Amino acid sequence: MSEVDPLAELPPKIAKHTDSYYDLLDVSYNAQTETIKQAYRNKIRQYHPDTSNDPHAEEITFALNRAVDTLTTRHERMLYNELGHQEYHETRSATNTDTTDGSDSDEDVYRSSIYDLITLAKVQTYSDEVWWRILIQTNGFKLFVGVVISIAMLFSVLLVI
Questions:
Q1: CA-CA distance, 69 to 23, in Å (whole number)?
Q2: Are 60 and 42 in contact (CB under 8 A)?
Q3: What is the model's pLDDT at position 12?
Q4: Domain segments of the chain as ranges
Q5: pLDDT per residue over 83-103, tens digit each?
Q6: DSSP state string for 2-42
Q7: Global pTM?
């Protein structure tokens, strides 16, 4: 089942200024998780269907919920940043996965990790596979990659000497 892009459903008054979830929440690309959550709380107070008279309140609230779910989950945010809004949404619709797993939504700071290095190395083709996503997110995998990199650096130093 293909899902409609939340930003495509926004009313014209908001859509003309909104190209990404960052624009919707009015936060910067490198905003910390707490800043994103605070921006979400401010916007949801303004547009929640129970308190707003805006005829498009439901569409705006849906888009705000998708934005905060994506941008406060480290893995989803990384994919969103790498792919951009349109490609991210097309990928998510095609794989029909939920972004609200909450596994790392309590991160206070958006930090680089081994997974960042992997995505920069363009191992992205495997990210749609559930087993690969689970493997990459485990601490054991991160430790393994760190050990392999350390051993490679040690051997390169020994070869130079």
A1: 15
A2: no
A3: 87
A4: 1-110, 112-161
A5: 888 888 887 776 654 544 444
A6: PPPPGGGGS-HHHHTT-SSHHHHHT--TT--HHHHHHHHHH
A7: 0.58
